Amino acid sequence: MVDSPAVEDLTDIEAIKIRSVTGIVAVSLRNFLLQFIAVIANFLLGIFLLPSEYGIFFGVSALIEFFVIFSDVGLAAALIQKKDSLTRKDLATTFTIQQVLVTFLVITALLLSPVIGRFYNLSPQGIGLFQALAISLILASLKTIPAIRLERRLKFSKLIIPEILENLCFYAVAVTLAWRGWGVTAFTWAVLARGFMGLITMYALSPWRPSLALDREVIKKLLTFGAPFQVNSVIAFIKDKLLIAYLFKILSPAEVGFVGWAQKWSNYPLQLVMGPVNKVAFPTYSRLQHQTYLLKNAVEKTLFFISLLLFPAVIGLIAIAPTFIRVFPRYAQWQPALFSLVLFSVAVLWSSLSTTLTNTLSAIGYINTNLKLMIFWTTLTWIATPLLITRFGFTGVAAAAALVSFTSVIPIIIVKRIIPMAVATNVLPSLFISLGIGLMAYSLSTKITSLTGLALVICVSVLVYAGLSWLIQKDKILYHSQTLIKAFKPV
C-alpha cells in the first residue's frame, strides 16, 4: 500500500513567492509585537531583578540547551527541506524518534539536576528553574509536527499565533512574580506557563493525531539531511550556549548578568528583523532551490531589506543607550555593560548578513559547507574569548564576538561563487546612511535629560533616515517591493 501524502506542498512558483512575502509580513507583525512586549518586559525585569538574578536565568537557560540540542537530531529541518510531499510515515516516524529522545533527555536532566546545581553553586531556586526548563522540552517537542505541517504550506499567519500567546504568557508571569519579589522563581513559573500555552494553541490551529511508527527507509532519507544539519546545530551550541555555560562557571552571576543583558538588548533589532526573515527564508529558499534566478532575486531582496531595517536599529541603539541609562536612574546598575552592548551590536551587524547566506547554503543543500564554517567560527570563539576575558574581564566576551564577526565575509564569498548575486549595492548604502544618522542621534541625545526629549530625538532620527533612504535608494526600494505590492494587490 502506497503511503499517501499527509501535507500538500506548494509547487506553483507564483504562489510560493506571494505566500512567502505575505508570510514575512505576518511574521514581521508578530515579531514587532513580540519585541515590543519583550522590550517593555525586560526593561521592567531590569528594574525588579538584580544583575545576579538575571545572570542565573541567562546561565541556566544555556545549560538546558545541551539537552535541547539532542532532542531533534535534525529531523524537523529535514522534513521542512524535503523535496517530495510529506507522508504519514514521515510524520509518525519523526514524532516517534523525537519523543523517545526527549523523554530520555528530560529524565537524564532531572536526575542530573542536583549534580549540576552543586557544580555551579546554584540555589534551590536555580535548580528548580533548571528542572522547569527540562520539563518544558516535552511540551515543545509535542508541537513539532503540527508546526512543520504549517511551515511546509508556508502558512505563517497561523504559525505566529502560538508564539505570540507563549511570549505574552511568559512575560506576564515573569514580570508579575518578579515585581512581587519572587526573584529567579519568577522565571520558573513563566517557563512552565509558556510551554502549556504554546502546546494547547498549536494543536488548536493545526490538529494532528499523534501516531507512532519506525520506518527504516524514512529514517535513512531524513538522516541524510538531518544528521549533518544537526551536527551543525551541535557546533553552534558549542560556539554559543556551551560558552555561556563556561562563563557561568568562571564569572560571577552579576558579571554573567551584564553579559546576558548586553547580548539580549543588542539582539533585539536582530530578532525584530531577522526573526521573520529566518522563519520564512529557509522553507522558501528550499522551494526555489532549482530556480537559480528566482533564488538570486530572493536572496538579494532579503539582504536589501535586512540592511534597510536592521542597520539603523542597531546603530541607533548604540547611539541612545548611554542617554537611556542616564534618564532612568534605576538602570544605573547596568552601566558597566554599556561597552559590551556596543561590541555585541557590531557582531549583530555582521551576523545579519552571514545568517542569511548560511540559510541559503542550507536550503540549496550545501549543509557540509555550513558545517565547516561553524567549526571555524566555534574554534575562533573559544580561542578568543578566554584570552580576552583574561585581559578585559567580562567585557572580553563581547570583544571576542565582535572580533570573530568580521570573518562573516567568508560566507559572502562562498555564496557569490554559487549564486551570482550583488551584495555591496544592496547593503552599503543603508550602512552609510545609518552611520550618519547614528552620529546625529548620539550628538543630540548627549544633551537630553528627560524621556520626552529622548523620544523626540528617536522620532527625528527615524524621519531623517526614512527621508534620506527614499532620496538615495528610491528605485531600489520600489524594485524590491514589487513582489510585496503584488502580494497584497486586490484581485
Count of individual beta strands = 2
| Secondary-structure element series | EHHHEHHHHHHHHHHHHHHHH
Distance between the termini: 42 Å
Instruction: Estimate the strand proportion.
Output: under 5%
Rounded average pLDDT: 80
The strand line-up of the biggest sheet is 1-2
Helix proportion range: over 70%
Gross morphology is globular
**How many helices does DSSP assign?**
19
> Helix- and strand-based class?
mainly alpha
Radius of gyration: 23 Å
Main sheet attributes: strand count, strand direction, barrel closure:
2 strands, antiparallel
The multimeric state of the shown protein is single chain
- Unreliable residue stretches: 7-11, 487-491
Properties at a glance:
491 residues, mainly alpha, two-stranded antiparallel ribbon
Describe the structure.
- It is a single chain.
- This protein has 491 residues and is mainly α.
- Helices cover 82% and strands 1% of the residues.
- The chain contains 19 helices and two strands.
- The protein has helices spanning 13-48, 51-68, 75-81, 88-119, 124-141, 144-152, 156-179, 185-205, 216-239, 241-250, 253-287, 292-327, 338-363, 367-392, 395-405, 409-418, 424-445, 451-480, 482-487; strands at 5-7, 86-87.
- The protein has a two-stranded antiparallel ribbon.
- Helix 2 (51-68) packs across helix 5 (124-141) and helix 2 crosses helix 11.
- The longest helix has 36 residues, at 13-48.
- The chain is globular and about 65 Å long.
- 47% of the residues are buried.
- Residues 7-11 and 487-491 have low confidence and may be disordered.
